[in-house]
TrEMBL record:
<dbReference type="Pfam" id="PF00561">
    <property type="entry name" value="Abhydrolase_1"/>
</dbReference>
<keyword id="KW-0472">Membrane</keyword>
<protein>
    <recommendedName>
        <fullName>acylglycerol lipase</fullName>
        <ecNumber>3.1.1.23</ecNumber>
    </recommendedName>
</protein>
<dbReference type="InterPro" id="IPR029058">
    <property type="entry name" value="AB_hydrolase_fold"/>
</dbReference>
<comment type="function">
    <text>Lipase that preferentially hydrolysis medium-chain saturated monoacylglycerols including 2-arachidonoylglycerol. Through 2-arachidonoylglycerol degradation may regulate endocannabinoid signaling pathways. Also has a lysophosphatidyl lipase activity with a preference for lysophosphatidylglycerol among other lysophospholipids. Also able to degrade bis(monoacylglycero)phosphate (BMP) and constitutes the major enzyme for BMP catabolism.</text>
</comment>
<dbReference type="InterPro" id="IPR000073">
    <property type="entry name" value="AB_hydrolase_1"/>
</dbReference>
<dbReference type="InterPro" id="IPR050266">
    <property type="entry name" value="AB_hydrolase_sf"/>
</dbReference>
<keyword id="KW-1133">Transmembrane helix</keyword>
<feature type="domain" description="AB hydrolase-1">
    <location>
        <begin position="84"/>
        <end position="328"/>
    </location>
</feature>
<keyword id="KW-0812">Transmembrane</keyword>
<dbReference type="GO" id="GO:0031902">
    <property type="term" value="C:late endosome membrane"/>
</dbReference>
<dbReference type="GO" id="GO:0005765">
    <property type="term" value="C:lysosomal membrane"/>
</dbReference>
<dbReference type="GO" id="GO:0046464">
    <property type="term" value="P:acylglycerol catabolic process"/>
</dbReference>
<dbReference type="GO" id="GO:0047372">
    <property type="term" value="F:monoacylglycerol lipase activity"/>
</dbReference>
<feature type="transmembrane region" description="Helical">
    <location>
        <begin position="12"/>
        <end position="35"/>
    </location>
</feature>
<dbReference type="GO" id="GO:0031966">
    <property type="term" value="C:mitochondrial membrane"/>
</dbReference>
Length: 347
């Protein structure tokens, strides 16, 4: 033991004092960030993951009312090529697309937009911004700002983003060349597990209103977030408590917006929006769903298959939950690109 201590002593005396100081400070800062400010660590990870996917991050210039969009972009617009616009789900942002975009070749133009109140796009200025038709209006403004409004797009949406994509395709048909609906938010023939397990309590105890106390999709603790991840993913991963705490703190900054929006989402009126406009969507369409989706039941596929006017491709992914982009990012990208490539022959 004495020999070991003397060797350590020798190593420390030989170490450059400046190097030792930097190493000590770096270690202390890392420990501080991990234990005291884990959200900082997550932010850094998100930035690295997005960059690794090949996306460039951009803000648009502000609109006259001060509203500003944030978006990711991979590749560049090409004449004769259909650009892909991706719309995320409830309480998500551009980061959720990073694992998918990483699997898309850089010669294909992809735009990933943060919807109002999500990510780094401006928070809703008024009630209209958070309603779905208001979100569609904002998407049109965004496309004007980035000079993509004159070229029809392949619009890909997940969950709430798929609902918005469906509304956009029905109202702005001249701007949409194709549509991919991925586990869209809608009323399904069979209720999902998350609805079955929470419906009775929410109705009886809270009068049908979701709150921060009872909404499983708005967790306020590390344990609640782990539970939400277990519900939305097929592959369950147990995350370190500090990382979960950091993620909860980041999400809490948008609590008011998310709570307002989720209560709009669960309304009977909203649950029927997509089904009621399916016959108005004339562009070539694709449906993707995780076979083990516990949030929006896969039985919704039957409605889309029957009522979508031009449904050309249906993909049910095995070993996949609601978070299709995270459970099966490579397979998801492959299915989207297969459909995208077929458009050149069908349009």
């Amino acid at each position: 033991m004495e020999m070991l201590l003397s060797l350590v002593d020798l190593e420390l005396t030989l170490l450059n004092p400046a190097t030792f100081t930097v190493a000590t400070i770096t270690t202390l800062m890392t420990l501080y960030v991990y234990f005291i400010q884990p959200s900082m660590l997550l932010k850094a990870y998100f930035r690295v993951a997005v960059r690794w996917s090949g996306m460039r991050m951009n803000y648009t210039k502000p609109l006259p009312d001060g509203f500003q969009f944030f978006y990711g972009e991979k590749g560049y617009r090409k004449k004769g090529q259909i650009s892909i616009l991706m719309l995320h789900g409830f309480s998500a942002d551009h980061f959720m697309w990073a694992p998918v975009v990483r699997n898309i070749p850089s010669d294909i133009h992809v735009i990933v937009l943060d919807l109002p109140g999500h990510g780094f796009t401006s928070n809703p200025i008024n009630e209209d911004d958070i309603e779905f038709k208001g979100q569609v209006r904002r998407i049109r403004q965004f496309l004007d700002l980035v000079d993509l409004s004159s070229q029809p797009l392949h619009v890909v949406g997940v969950s709430m983003g798929a609902l918005v994509a469906g509304i956009f395709a029905s109202e702005c048909s001249q701007m949409v060349s194709a549509l991919t609906l991925t586990c869209p938010w809608m009323k399904t023939p069979f209720e999902s597990r998350i609805i079955r397990e929470n419906k009775k309590v929410v109705l009886e105890k809270y009068g049908g209103l979701l709150t921060l106390e009872n909404c499983p999709m708005l967790p306020q603790t590390a344990e609640g977030l782990q539970n939400m991840l277990d519900i939305s993913h097929f592959h369950s991963v147990k995350y370190p408590q500090q990382i979960l705490k950091g993620a909860v703190e980041l999400r809490k900054q948008k609590n008011d917006i998310y709570l307002h929006l989720v209560n709009i989402l669960i309304s009977e009126e909203t649950s029927l929006i997509l089904e009621n406009l399916l016959n108005k969507i004339k562009c070539p369409s694709q449906v993707i769903w995780g076979r083990d989706d516990w949030v929006v039941d896969v039985s919704g596929v039957d409605i889309l298959k029957e009522k979508l006017a031009n449904c050309q491709q249906i993909d049910i992914l095995d070993e996949c939950g609601h978070a299709v982009n995270l459970d099966q990012p490579n397979l998801f990208a492959t299915k989207v690109l297969t459909f995208w490539k077929s458009l050149k022959n069908s349009l």
